[in-house]
Amino acid sequence: MSEMRHNIRLCSGPELSAAILVGGAATRMGGVAKALLDVDGRSILDWLLAVLVPRFAEVLLVAKEAQPYGDICAAGHVPNPVTGGATLRLAQDALPGRSSLTGIHTALANASTEHVFITACDTPFLRPALVEALQARLRPEDDVVLPQKPDGYFEPLCAFYSRRCLPHIEKQLARDDHKIIRFFPKVRVNLLPPEALLAADPALLSFQNANTPDELRSLRQTAASFRRPPQEAP
Fold this sequence. Notes:
about 20% strand; 10 strands; alpha/beta; about 230 residues
């Protein structure tokens, strides 16, 4: 794999954390590190950090194995001439099994703030307006804040979670139940309604991901369309 660029310019943000779940098995992509895949000359991780870093106090990379993300996080505190710096940390998932729910647990257990924004590692077009809409909706008493799509489905990997979710997640994992939304009835959930989601992300680009090689090709085509004059864009 060619070397990916990680041009990280961290700025201090509100007292919230963000976490990118980079530890998936990626079986349909041949087991590659999806966050490091190239989309229009930048790794997907670079795309995500560009959105998250200015808006959060810290960004966690949640992984099952330390490498290659341990090297990326090795500096720990990344200097910034304006703010002095912010934190980029590896949070290694020590729980048995591998799932998005174990990743959420690891993020919450390692975060230094009460609420954590969770995102998948293969969604390069996460819209800043959507992150901000979710953040604006977040109240201290909320345990989960997530968008509801027009078809009624939730997007649990583009959401804020409170550390108060930890005991509920632990009980669920003890039953070997890895479906994220299963614990939602036990906590306070605040939905971002479809009309607010569409106002922030009309084309739902935030949820375009790379589960398969075909989807990766689609991501690259979408990224290329961003660079075309408006009259040429699809």
